[in-house]
């Protein structure tokens, strides 16, 4: 029993380090009989550019050529976008018939991006330093000595990259990187032309005949009876045209005829003709047609959210979420006896937008 106890105590006194493989003075592990020696890093072999300045110059010119080609491709992208019609079809072997614009944009953008990448890689492989330096891992929080060492290495790396010395490479790289974002900027043109002030105007203009929306015939005062409501639009709108719905959405109107003494607003009476008043029928809330007319009260109701307008009092809002009255169109009768507009609405029709504040 005593012998077993002594053996156990002797085993416990043995340090854990005794079971670990031995290490050499340089810190590498020495296994039994050392079957796999640490080969270390292979000796550094200088490149041709490191010993021959003419070869370095050729590499510099190659990198500059790639960056310059990227700039030219970016310019080609912009020119293609502006000059090539969107509906032009070309034959490209072996692809076949494709959009000329898409092909030109894809090709020029690919060349611009490829040349920037290829130029950067060629610069790194032939001109920047390629010496491999091993470094021990360290704690996340660096000591002041390590920080100073990192800054020193950064400055050394910047010097070895020859960024300051190879001005041709540096300047052409800056040019390529500055121009290639223009490809994305030019694509903003696809959002359409600038709207200008067209949102404030409709198809109505001075002298536009008022056309019955159902019969497509110009209206005379005698076509509109007291208490009736007629939906109309300006002349020149073709229901089969591509932009018809966009234009009618702003220009659609309704005409009501009241007894002149029932009109409360003097300005509305002046802008009408013999009790005929012409208002935009587009609700000023969210753009529904406010054409449910109650002839006894002269109220127009929007069926979507029940906004109610008093057509006898300048179409002011009586109820509902609409923010302002229906715009009125100033009308008259021409020499042939047809109703016509004296201009556009005095304010943009339809839902409120930011300019109304």
Automatic annotation (TrEMBL):
Residues 250-340 form the Rieske domain. The chain crosses the membrane at residues 63-84, 104-124, 168-188. Residues 13-27 have a biased composition (Basic and acidic residues). Residues 1-48 are annotated as: Disordered. It is a multi-pass membrane protein. CDD domains: Rieske (cd03467). Keywords: 2Fe-2S, Cell membrane, Disulfide bond, Electron transport, Iron, Iron-sulfur, Membrane, Metal-binding, Oxidoreductase, Respiratory chain, Transmembrane, Transmembrane helix, Transport. Coiled coil: none annotated. PROSITE patterns: RIESKE. Belongs to the Rieske iron-sulfur protein family. This is Cytochrome bc1 complex Rieske iron-sulfur subunit.
